Amino acid sequence: MFETLNRMRQYGGKMFPLKLMFTLPTSMGILFHPEISDTFEGNFKEQSGLNSNWLPVNPLNVPDPRPGSCHNDSRTLPDLTLNFKKTHSLMDETVPAFFGSPILTRVSTM
């Protein structure tokens, strides 16, 4: 189960959109939307073979329009973009947590 909560919060005299993200029952982290956007504008990851390392995709190999970008009608997206997104679901960078780590981690309920 994946849950999110969105709120505006003030930090350092500025208002930021705040996103609380957690997967039950594992962990919860506090993330700011700018960091989420930066991550999704970064490099995708790919694996050339089943036993290969996951490596960043060369930006020249990312189709246009870029997967994840705003588009008026997803039904008009080229097959190249749709297939790329189906086979490249991981991003190279992680979204940094506001406090540097999850604020709550639960390993087991037993």
UniProtKB/TrEMBL annotation:
Keyword terms of this UniProt record: Differentiation
GO MF terms held by the record: chemorepellent activity; semaphorin receptor binding
GO CC, alphabetical: plasma membrane
InterPro entries according to UniProt: Semap_dom, Semap_dom_sf, Semaphorin, WD40/YVTN_repeat-like_dom_sf
A single GO BP: semaphorin-plexin signaling pathway
Keyword Zinc-finger listed: no
Residue ranges constituting the Sema domain according to the UniProt record: 1-110
Gene3D superfamilies: YVTN repeat-like/Quinoprotein amine dehydrogenase (2.130.10.10)
Organism domain of life: Eukaryota
PANTHER family cross-referenced by the UniProt entry: SEMAPHORIN, SEMAPHORIN-1A
Protein name, entry field: Sema domain-containing protein
Organism: Anopheles maculatus
